[in-house]
Amino acid sequence: MQDVCLLPPKVGLEFYHTTRNALVLYEAIIPVKLQKQLDSINQAAVLIHNDCLYLSQEILGLAFEYRPYFPSSLKEHAVFVDLAPKFQLMAEEVLQRQIQLVVHNLKQAIDGADGFQNTHQIKQFESAKFCIDQVAFIIEKVHIVWEPLLLPSVYENSMAMIFEFVFSRIAKEILTLDDMAAEETLQLQRLIHLLFEHLSSLLEPLLAVDHFRKSQEAQKERDNFILSIWKLRKLAELLDMPLRSIIAAWESGELADCNFTSSEVEDFIRAIFTDSPLRKECLFRIENYAVQKE
């Protein structure tokens, strides 16, 4: 672009078109040429994301930086700003594809736990434990690939989305169990504790971040992330909590603050506690509390 400023207008116009065409070619060729890398979790895909993000920012400044020095006949024709959104979109698509690939792998790992059923049986517990280990391994691998290369804000928000998926999915699986033996509840609690133990070194830096970038979307991702942690941790507590304590936690609003719904609490109580006058009373209190709230 510096050459454009020094050359005769006609030649400068050719240089301008060459610069613009180079950017257009990059946008068209990279997704095709590097499709294999973009369809797997690796550093090459992250670098492509970074390149597109960088170009989207640099393109916005090209015309402003050099326009004052362009020949007058070229000033009206030199336009780059229309290309910036394309590279911004390309960067976002590459990143979303990476996140989708990670979520797909995590979904497969969690599916292997078979809904975390019958974990009081040794074989089923070992199978579920293996799935928890797999989940931790996948996330650790993603951290190794992403953390050194992505911008801190992008890394934080992307990891928050992944953690939110894992915690919400596991909580949902456990909360849909329709009958749990006493030993089973303790094993499920053990599995949740194991998951947090595996992931603590990755979670702590994210939870320490108090500037989760100021956009509304980023704040929403952080809120969902935090709620998913609270819910799964609280679920681990509920698994060996007396019935009266569960009701007290619900009526105090503690469970609602952790994103539990009334139907989830009711189903959980039915799954763990046998039918009794106390259970009927507690279920009635939950239903009545929900009606009063409406």
From TrEMBL:
One of its GO terms (biological process) is mitotic spindle assembly checkpoint signaling. It holds the Pfam family ZW10_C. Residues 3-106 form the Centromere/kinetochore protein zw10 C-terminal domain. GO terms for cellular component: cytoplasm; RZZ complex. InterPro entries: Zw10/DSL1_C_sf, ZW10_C, ZW10_C_2. Residues 130-286 form the ZW10 C-terminal helical domain. This is Centromere/kinetochore protein zw10 involved in mitotic chromosome segregation.
